[in-house]
Structure to design on (413 residues):
């Protein structure tokens, strides 16, 4: 995707690789030092946050994620993108790190508007630092000097205009952790709602009661990545298990449409015991929550474990079904996991939605989301009619498409 780079010194950086080279030169103190660093650019494109309280001695406490950082003056929080200046919390505003159009099945949502196009945007930064992150270029942009996201100036109006132009039904905040950029997401989602679009978060689930209350009026669909059921593993990733479990319970109680994903990593979270406890927890919240066990492939800093095999996913799925989950899927290995890409009626086992990877190959639900054979309603958010699938593949609009002219050359503050 092309568009205006945020910040004046950025215009000559024609690719992320070149940008990375420039930034490393800037940060190593050579003669390009006068150019702004990525940190400068991100810190300039902010506005006052809405999810914080003021503490004594000019400190603030942020509530956007489960870390609930108490932040001294002049310092950022753990995520590196929200920071305290003069006793005020400043948060990211007015740019995107990535924009892409995905099939909604890629998020993955399997029980929400099958076939819809999900216009997906992200900013930069994350509150965790998973060694296997598949979006590390944006999520770790301010933490890892080799991860160089390229921010693009954006406004909520322009993003929504572009989503409509592409034929999207859903606008999704994803690619970095959306909780840490909640104020920007809500600004975009207010525009999206006014234009008749649905909205979604693709998140690690490290939330707080405050951020969920803040999001509830504006977010329809919520995917949580439940990475493990072992607090020691979460510590390795930079978080804690309990806030994520609390968030899952709250999301369900508050009426968000919730689906849960676990990337199954050999030797990390794939023991029978851990998968059993994890799926029993989900079932204790609701057996109607779809659970996606997806295959790991070597990425970023995690290159030791083998890629996940189909047998491992099928074992995980069996454990999930034994725990009582009614809708269990195996992802990332299309065509290798038997029936685990399809949706069946939990009452009579009638085949309802057939899939190959992100492609829907058959759709048999009634207009009210019920089984045509026994009439049982399948939990989810269903359109009255399946109107085909816009695309089964992610795509980035061409530089000469309307996106180029829609995204402005600089940030509108
Ligand atoms: S979003 Fe999370 S990590 Fe970032 S400042 Fe707020 S509480 Fe800390």
């Amino acid at each position: 995707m092309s568009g205006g780079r945020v910040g004046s010194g950025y215009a000559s950086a024609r690719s992320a690789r070149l940008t990375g080279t420039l930034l490393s030169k800037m940060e190593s103190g050579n003669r390009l030092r006068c150019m702004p660093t990525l940190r400068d650019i991100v810190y300039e494109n902010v506005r006052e946050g809405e999810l914080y309280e003021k503490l004594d001695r000019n400190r603030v406490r942020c509530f956007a994620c489960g870390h609930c950082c108490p932040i001294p003056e002049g310092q950022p929080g753990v995520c590196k993108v929200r920071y305290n200046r003069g006793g005020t919390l400043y948060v990211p505003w007015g740019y995107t790190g990535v924009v892409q159009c995905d099939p909604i099945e890629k998020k993955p949502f399997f029980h929400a508007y099958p076939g819809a196009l999900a216009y997906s945007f992200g900013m930069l930064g994350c509150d965790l630092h998973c060694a296997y992150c598949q979006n590390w270029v944006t999520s770790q942009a301010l933490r890892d000097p080799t991860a160089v996201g390229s921010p693009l100036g954006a406004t909520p109006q322009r993003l929504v205009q572009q989503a409509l132009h592409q034929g999207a039904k859903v606008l999704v905040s994803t690619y970095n952790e959306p909780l840490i950029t909640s104020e920007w997401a809500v600004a975009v989602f207010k525009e999206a709602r006014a234009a008749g679009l649905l909205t979604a978060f693709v998140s690690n689930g490290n939330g707080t009661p405050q951020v969920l209350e803040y999001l509830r009026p504006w977010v329809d669909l919520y995917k949580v990545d439940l990475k493990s059921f072992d607090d020691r593993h979460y510590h390795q990733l930079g978080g804690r298990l309990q806030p994520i479990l609390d968030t899952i319970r709250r999301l369900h109680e508050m009426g968000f449409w919730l689906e849960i994903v676990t990337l199954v990593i050999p030797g990390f979270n794939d023991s029978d015991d851990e998968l059993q406890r994890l799926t029993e927890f989900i079932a204790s919240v609701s057996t109607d929550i779809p659970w996606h066990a997806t295959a790991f492939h070597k990425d970023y800093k995690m290159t030791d474990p083998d890629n996940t095999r189909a047998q491992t996913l099928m074992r995980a799925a069996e454990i999930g079904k034994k725990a009582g989950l009614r809708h269990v899927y195996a992802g990332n290995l299309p065509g290798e996991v038997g029936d685990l890409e399809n949706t069946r009626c939990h009452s009579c086992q009638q085949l309802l939605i057939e899939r190959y990877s992100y492609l829907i190959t058959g759709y048999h639900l009634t207009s009210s989301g019920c089984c045509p054979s026994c009439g049982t309603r399948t939990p989810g958010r269903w359109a009255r009619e399946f109107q085909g699938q816009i695309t089964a593949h992610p795509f980035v609009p061409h530089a000469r498409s309307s996106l180029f002219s829609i995204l402005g050359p600089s940030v509108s503050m």
The pocket of iron/sulfur cluster is lined by residues 62, 64-65, 67-69, 77-79, 82, 127, 180 (CB under 6 Å). The mean pLDDT is 86.
